[in-house]
Structure formats: C-alpha cells, structure tokens
Amino acid sequence: MQERLFKVRNRAGIHCRPSGVILNTIQQEFPDHRFSIVTAEGETPLDSMLALISLGLACGAEALLRVEGADEERALERIGGLLEYEFDFPPR
Asked: 55 lies in which domain range?
C-alpha cells in the first residue's frame, strides 16, 4: 500500500464531472487496484461516484489518497494528479 497527501485545486471542488473522470480512469487503467481517500472523518473507498462526491472535497481541501495493487506508484501519481487537476468544464 502506498499513500500520498493531495490538495484539491479545482475551483468548484470535486463535483460530478471531475468525479466521473477520476472514476472512469480508475476503472479503465487500474481495475485491479483498490483506492481510498482518508479524511478526518475516516477512510472512504473510491468505488462509486457517490462515494467520491459525498466527501465534499472543496477547493483547498487536503486528504490522503491510498492505493493497493500491482503498480501502486503509477496509480498513485495518475489518480492523485487528477484529484489535484484544475478541471475546466466546459473546456474553453
């Protein structure tokens, strides 16, 4: 298991559209990995869009991303990068 602290930079936080991108990436690129986010309230598995949105990760929020699987380092960098990415919906 590897983990990394990340900070949400998206101005609107992690809402439906970023959640969809993050979860689709997990399902397509890392289907055999287990991801979770640890906040002050506890650990939440990233297994559904509702689970991710329910964390209420607003801009500036910090949380710990955990991953278990064969290629943990690459998975951590990829998904952590998406959590820190400033999405622009719709693209300009």
From this structure: 2-84
Assigned domain for 91 exists: no
- Averaged pLDDT of the chain: 93
Taking CB atoms within 8 Å and a gap of at least 24, the contacts of 78-81 are 78/25, 78/29, 78/30, 79/22, 79/25, 79/26, 79/30, 79/35, 79/46, 80/4, 80/6
Please count the structural domains in the chain. 1
pTM over 0.85: yes
What band does 46 get if pLDDT is binned at 50, 70 and 90? very high
Summarised one tens digit per residue, pLDDT across range 59-85 is 999 989 999 999 999 999 999 999 999
3-state secondary structure 4-34: EEEECCCCCCCCHHHHHHHHHHHHHHCCCCE
Is residue 9 assigned to a domain? Answer: yes
